[in-house]
Prior knowledge:
With 479 residues, the protein is an alpha/beta fold. It has helices spanning 2-5, 15-24, 28-37, 44-56, 60-72, 75-85, 88-100, 102-109, 113-131, 136-152, 156-165, 179-196, 200-212, 219-232, 251-273, 279-295, 303-306, 310-323, 327-337, 339-344, 355-363, 381-388, 408-414, 418-427, 471-478, and strands at residues 371-376, 395-397, 431-437, 454-461, 464-469.
Amino acid sequence: AALRLLLLGSKSIWVDEAYAIGLAQMDLPDLLRLSASATPHPPLFFLVLKLSGSLFGSTATGLRLLPALISASSVLPLFMFLRRRFSLWSAFWVSCLWAVCPYAVSLAQEAWVYGLLAAATIWAIDLADRAWRGSRRALAAFLLVSWAGFLVQPLFALSYLAALALWLTLPPRSRCPARNPLIALAAGAAGLAVALIPCMDFIGASAERKAAAGFYAGRLAALPGELATTMARLLPDGLFPEITRNLLERPRMMTAVVLVMLLETGALVFALTSRALRRPLRLWVLGVLLGSAAAAVPLVAGARPFSLLWAPLAVALALVFSRWRPAGPACVLLTGLALVPYYCAGSHPYHRSDWSAAVRLVESRIDTSSERVLVLSGQSGGIAWDFYSSSPGRRVALGADENPYRPRSVRDAEQRSPSAALDSLLLDGTDVWLVIDLWGGRPPLDLPPPSGRIGLDTLVSECMRVVRLDSQCQQERSH
């Protein structure tokens, strides 16, 4: 809990987080309606975010605090699950590893779906393991946690199936009758249906747009690289960049990536081949790995479909730590050291867009009486700017950047090109500050040659560019 709450509000919000914050600030009816029609996520996460803001304030820290506490609670069920199957030593050090690794800490440092999804996954696995051993209270709690998981993200279905499959890993004399997991399967199907039905229109429309854009054509070819990137990030999260050829030009980073992948892959291979692990549990580890990979085919690999991957990794590491006792504290120490660069980063390492720094830079220099701000982002950039700005009325944003909750057809009809919006402001005699979120491969804005008209052009973070343009030069160019 201390690691997750430390510097909780120090990192800038990012555009997906801004989208969620915008929803959480709405009245309850609008929140429920828009979360179903404009996102692939059911409303529970947004309700938790709204409750956190009501209890602790609408700052970044206040909005993240309740999700952070829920995320921190996941260390306990991970320890209890591993303690029933391995030694106290192994369970303790794997749980410590989950507590200190930047991947787990980042799930609490950002107010988004992933922390709640990971917590629901680990709680469900522990409670299911108790339920299949005959505990009725654990079965009831398992169903409640699972329904909550479905209402956070329908992909929790992967976690639910993994939890049900734990029944097969127990000796026949130690497990409850088969009707209990079958009843739970039916209850889970009902919970998934309740979560999915309100989102079906959005999911269908999103699938059509991806198909029209050729998104699925190259999925199988791109999948190995995405799987490798995701596995490399299970411990350090976004401290590692995408695994591409450019990574070869950074020897120290490449060395760290190789070491982490050797640790994780070596542990998983050892677990799958060692007779020290019962065969049913080995098959469970393999099934969870293959199921997570299969789910990534229609999706973009990342924390959503891979929150479950930590469960088989935890089993594998517990086996390794039970055979080589010094490996436990050594892994925890080395992984904990990675928190230093994580805490020093001003933005979430995966998104790398520091809206807080961009707003501070612009508002420390802007003349609010005569200058304007043009925000260019992929989604909800206007909300991210307004969250930190002391004078949000001076900014202009386009389409989804301005209001991502309007119907897409309306936003598309009002959408102007960034260059057209910029020219319109400059020709009016207004000096313009451009705040450009480059995350996600946004194409660069086609700016004229900087012949004295660009007063400032700087990167405030790896993916956040700030440019100041002088309108006088634009007027001379038009003459």
